[in-house]
């Protein structure tokens, strides 16, 4: 199918499809005249990319998941189950991080000092400031 046909089927703009092509999420073939042609399976690949972005996955994560799908055929239920497990792990990690952030935020605001520099509960003597700029408590947890 042409890029215009693919745009009509996915609801995406032609420029967005070109963007995803440049990122390697779809790989059209060229006609003898040099025109792009896409497979019907690219409808699902692009639809998956849009949904995955709404879930918060990055383009490299999406590309990694799509790399496990076969080129040239519509993915099977087994293909999607495999990808779904990978996405579940990503989402579970993000949910855990958000819960930790929420709990720290609730406790910090609850103490009343509203200052990480003076906070005797989470940052006595501004120890976090000595470790560098940025959200030190969250950055340290990501490394765990």
In short:
With 144 residues, this protein is an all-alpha fold.
Describe the overall structure.
By secondary structure, the protein is mainly alpha-helical. It is built from seven helices and two strands; from the N terminus they run H-H-E-E-H-H-H-H-H. It has helices spanning 3-10, 14-22, 41-54, 59-67, 77-111, 127-130, 136-143, and strands at 29-30, 36-37. It has a two-stranded antiparallel sheet. Strand 1 and strand 2 form a beta hairpin. Helix 3 (41-54) packs antiparallel against helix 4 (59-67). The protein is elongated, with a radius of gyration of 22 Å. It starts with a helix and ends with a helix. 13% of the residues are buried. The model has no long low-confidence stretch (mean pLDDT 82).
| Structural class by secondary-structure content | mainly alpha
Q: How would you spell out the order of helices and strands? A: HHEEHHHHH
Determine the fraction of residues in helical runs and give it as a percent range: 55-70%
Q: What are the low-pLDDT stretches, counting only 5+ consecutive residues below 50?
A: none
Termini separation? 47 Å
Count of alpha and pi helical runs: 7
Q: Strand portion, in percent?
A: under 5%
Gyration radius, in Å: 22 Å
| Assembly state of the chains shown | single chain
Strand order of the largest sheet: 1-2
Largest sheet entry? 2 strands, antiparallel
Q: How would the global form be characterised? A: elongated
What is the tally of beta strands?
2
Mean pLDDT: 82
